[in-house]
Design goal:
Keywords: 4Fe-4S, Disulfide bond, Iron, Iron-sulfur, Metal-binding, Oxidoreductase. A two-stranded antiparallel sheet has the order 1-2. The protein is α+β, with helices and mostly antiparallel strands and 165 residues long.
Length: 165
């Protein structure tokens, strides 16, 4: 079974298409739609800028916070320190872009609204109330992936998170 979506008039001139296919309960589905076109008005119109890495300052702030919180809460980092490094990197990036260390392991429709609500700002409410860290940054001793360390160096954070974000 194959279906084609009609092209909106605004995109009718585009010859490029995006295709995807999937199966749902054994039925093959294919959808073809036009590739979006960006209007060019001004020098930066259509340009998407993405921060590749967190600032050194916030990376160090979040590293120190993570160590202090682990020690204060009696939790430990994951046995695979790359998990710890990537989460710290994500927290630092959110601190740079949003002003708060919003949990980097969740999807948000509106990050700014989530920051204002405070529920998922690290340490999140589930962590503060029940010691449940979705990111696996702060693990209790009964967790299968718990390591034995509550410290991580800035060099480890940089090295272990390189190429993973």
């Amino acid at each position: 079974m194959q279906s084609t979506l009609a092209r909106p008039a605004s995109l009718a001139r585009s010859s490029a298409t995006l295709s995807s296919s999937a199966t749902h309960r054994g039925v093959g589905l294919a959808v073809t739609s036009p590739a979006p076109r960006l209007a060019r008005r001004g020098a930066n119109r259509g340009v998407v800028k993405v921060r590749a890495e967190a600032s050194e300052k916030n990376l160090e702030v979040m590293r120190k916070f993570s160590e202090q919180y682990a020690k204060g809460s009696g939790t430990y980092f994951c046995m695979d320190k790359s998990v710890t490094a990537v989460v710290i990197q994500g927290l630092a990036e959110h601190k740079d872009t949003l002003g708060s260390p919003l949990c980097p392991c969740r999807h948000y429709d509106d990050k700014e609204a989530e920051v204002k609500s405070g529920f998922w700002n690290c340490p999140c409410v589930p962590m503060r109330e029940r010691k449940e860290c979705h990111c696996m940054l702060f693990l209790t001793e009964d967790n299968d992936f718990v390591g034995d360390e509550q410290t991580i160096t800035i060099d480890e954070v940089v090295e272990l998170s390189e190429g993973m974000m």
